[in-house]
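Quick illustration, no need to memorize.
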Amino acid sequence: MSRELLQQQPGPSAYVTSGYYQRLYRIAKEWSNPGPPVAPEIHYEITHLLNRECRLLDDGRFEEWLGLFQDQCIYWIPSDPAPHNPGGTITWEIQDRRRLEDKIARFRTGFAFSQLPPTRTRHSLSNIEIWAAGETELRVRTNLNVHTYRKGEHGTLACMGGYVLQRQDDESWLIEVKQINLIDADQAQGNISFML
């Protein structure tokens, strides 16, 4: 590989540091202790955002889906029902923005063999709890069921979905963290190479 091409390759995410891993771990421990609910109009707005996120995933519109995330973001699937610090434990997935972009690009090549044919999904959210964690930060906890079909096989993944949302300068909300706690995270999983 030429020096010029090497220089064009993206480097590691500067924001994923040991301190950021510790922040994720603190957040993971707080999902069972939600704060006071937000106002109904904010609840409606955020529910709409999360429903849109599910629809974009189900429709395979991954580039638009990633547009719902801020530049500094994390997509995390722990491998334990009680998540530990992701900086020191194995996870099913932990991906920053750059890796999410790479995963989507790989899907689009037609050579992502774990997704040939692609998994068809239907995401269902329920029990949506939303609370403020600061003036510009919201936390959302949901029950998430992902119904799947691939190669003649149906499946359902039962999960807790945890989101950290950050308010932008234009007053919109973007996802900083999406954490998916599989109910059987400590058991062998099948092909979960699609986007949960």
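The chain has five helices and six strands.
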